[in-house]
Amino acid sequence: MAKKDKGKGKSHKHGEKVRVAFRRNRAKPARTKDWTHLEGPNEDQADALPHVESVVAKGDLSRKRTIIHQNPADAKGDRDGVVVAMRGLIAEVDDGERVWPCTVRRILRTRKIAERNPVTVGDRVRFSTEGVAEGVVSEGVIETVADRHGVITRVAGRRMHVVAANVDQAIIVASVGIPALKAHLIDRYIVATLHGEVTPIICINKTDVDETDEAAPVLALYRDLGYRALATSTVNGAGIDELRELLHGKCTAVAGQSGVGKSSLLNAVDPNLNLRVGEVIEETLKGRHTTTTAQLLPVSGGGYVVDTPGVKSFDLSAVPLGEIEAHFVEFGEHIPNCRFADCTHTHETNCAIKQAVDEGNITEQRYDSYVRMLQERMA
Ligand SMILES: Nc1nc2c(ncn2[C@@H]2O[C@H](COP(=O)(O)OP(=O)(O)OP(=O)(O)O)[C@@H](O)[C@H]2O)c(=O)[nH]1
Ligand SMILES: [Mg+2]
Ligand SMILES: [Zn+2]
């Protein structure tokens, strides 16, 4: 597959054209490679799917959608791909050539019922396209899903929803101005992220309107805890280069309240992403949920991002109660010194955590966050 000039691709605007071009691409015969070693609906085998890394720019219209190397169908018409978006029950799967709308094999839906969604954005899947008509709602059927690492989970009502899978790190975006900076919310995102085995990175956006330098102490706090924390502005460009560097070669989910500027940040990092951003609405002081579904996108320079929709409240019921303390890194060294092995660090006497708070070794803010999360779960 001949590589084309990447710069050339970047000079073109995206839009509806992207999809049209992919449909045209279909005409390409692509059944040369031997994938028989991956045959069969076996999850262990599916796990051996080639690791998706390289972004091969194949010309002007494919940059946004080309997320895996060339990956022709095997003799049975099965292909490997990555789920780039979910539209209801339809998974949009990119096999490196084009995006295929796929349904999920019933057996797979049943097997993964506990997880609520058997397939989510970022999943590596094997799907069959044989005997499926072109241009209909679904053109393929997902047969297997590779084991996941790094998941972003959220609870919708009473059901667990995996927003994104195979994520290495999450940029937790908060903002100064509107919406206002809420450290407690950052702590909640950190706990949720660590629970999913994803590395959190804290980002405080809209620093161009930070007249009182509100971001600085918050950034300092998280840096002290050992987290990467950056200040950004899509208006004056602060921190954008640093953010771009952080995304390089990784799969990064971008999470945070609606209106903090997640999509704006991604557009600043890579203008070709051309994501929809919200309008400024001063009256309501609330985000408008401009991004409505998570989608996986390659960023120029290498790496992938999952832009996620903001949520109003962030439910932590996916995290077992006893696990919460483990996600407050600074608690770790003190916990063994609590008098009671099952100390919850709330009402107990001789609690090393409370003592550390008194002595200023754990901040009030972090301790309050912990207590709030615990109380909420016990209510
Ligand atoms: N002042 C200022 N405004 C910004 C900045 N970044 C984004 N905004 C504005 O914030 C608003 C929300 O931006 P979005 O990028 O849509 O926010 P989002 O986090 O993607 O929101 P959802 O998709 O609803 O979750 C828009 O009006 C942006 O113009 C910034 O650095 N400074
Ligand atoms: Mg958005
Ligand atoms: Zn304790």
Can you walk through the features of this model?
The chain has 379 residues and is an alpha/beta fold. The chain has 3 domains: 6-145, Nucleic acid-binding proteins (OB fold (Dihydrolipoamide Acetyltransferase, E2P), Beta Barrel); 166-307, 3-Layer(aba) Sandwich (Rossmann fold); 321-378, Orthogonal Bundle (Ribonucleotide Reductase Protein R1, domain 1). Helix content is 22%, strand content 20%. It is built from 10 helices and 13 strands. The strands form 3 sheets. Strands 10-9-8-11-13-12 form a 6-stranded mixed sheet, sandwiched between helices. The chain has a 5-stranded mixed beta barrel with strand order 1-2-3-5-4. A two-stranded antiparallel ribbon has the order 6-7. Helix 5 crosses helix 10 (364-378). The longest helix is centred in the C-terminal third of the chain and has 15 residues, at 364-378. The radius of gyration is 22 Å and the shape is globular. It starts with 5 loop residues before the first helix and ends with a helix. Mean pLDDT is 80; it is low at 1-69. It binds guanosine-5'-triphosphate (GTP), magnesium ion (MG) and zinc ion. Residues 338, 343, 345, 348, 351-353 line the site of zinc ion.
Summarize the structure.
The protein is of the alpha/beta class and 379 residues long. Helices cover 22% and strands 20% of the residues. Helix 5 packs across helix 10.
List keywords for this structure.
disordered N terminus; binds guanosine-5'-triphosphate; six-stranded mixed sheet; alpha/beta; Rossmann fold; five-stranded mixed β-barrel; binds magnesium ion; 379 residues; OB fold (Dihydrolipoamide Acetyltransferase, E2P); binds zinc ion; globular; 3 domains
